[in-house]
Amino acid sequence: MTESRDKKLQEFIRSLRDQKLTVGFAESCTGGALSAFLTEQAGISDIFLGSVVSYSNEAKVDLLGVRRDTLMQEGAVSESVARQMAHGVRRQLKTDWSVAVTGIAGPSGGTPTKPVGTVCFAIVGPGFESSRKEFFSGDRKTIQQAAVDLSVSWLCEVLDRK
Fold first, then answer.
1. pLDDT tens digits for 80-124?
2. With the CA atoms of 99, 150, 33 and 14 taken in that order, what torsion angle do they form, in degrees rounded to the nearest 10?
3. C-alpha pair distances (Å), 153 with each of 28, 43, 127, 139
């Protein structure tokens, strides 16, 4: 782990602990990498309650309550689906905050409107809900790592403003 990534992770953990908050993740294209990144730290169970790796559409529907009509109309890689994933994991794990990530890590699966590297994020917490779409370049691992880093950085920013 680079010094910058480690610093951001420590900031993330400290912010949640200081505010006595919990978090859970709904991950698709990162395949659990966000959870793995957080659980590299010992004793993290006081703030991290778990995650749902929902790689298939069926898992998104069955485990997180994502609506089929949203999947059909907007596709799995959309801000609407990310928001529903974030709400679903927060509801299932009873966390204060949740982060959802869904995207196309490649090398295949991209389309002209959603190229490889398209990643949608959502954060849901007390009185807060937001989503965003980002485009990353690089190979599969680089895109997944960029998605993990952005998730941690963005939730830190949100928690700092609260």
1. 999 999 999 999 999 999 999 999 999 999 999 999 999 999 999
2. -70
3. 18, 21, 19, 21
Give strand ranges (E) for 104-148. Answer: 118-125, 128-135
Q: Evaluate whether 87 touches 124 at the Cβ level (below 8 Å).
A: yes
Sign of the torsion formed by the C-alpha atoms of 122, 32, 21 and 159: negative
Q: What is the DSSP string of 45-70?
A: GGTEEEEEE--SHHHHHHHH---HHH
Q: At what angle do helices 140-161 and 3-18 cross, to 10 degrees?
A: 40
pLDDT digits (tens, 9 = 90+) for 145-162: 999 999 999 999 999 887
Map tokens 């779409």 to a residue: 133
Q: Tell me how far apart the alpha carbons of residues 54 and 156 are, in angstroms, rounded to a whole number.
A: 24
Task: Collapse the DSSP code of 106 into the 3-class scheme (helix H, G, I; strand E, B; otherwise coil) and give the result.
Answer: coil
The pTM for the full model equals: 0.95
Indicate the DSSP class of residue 4: H
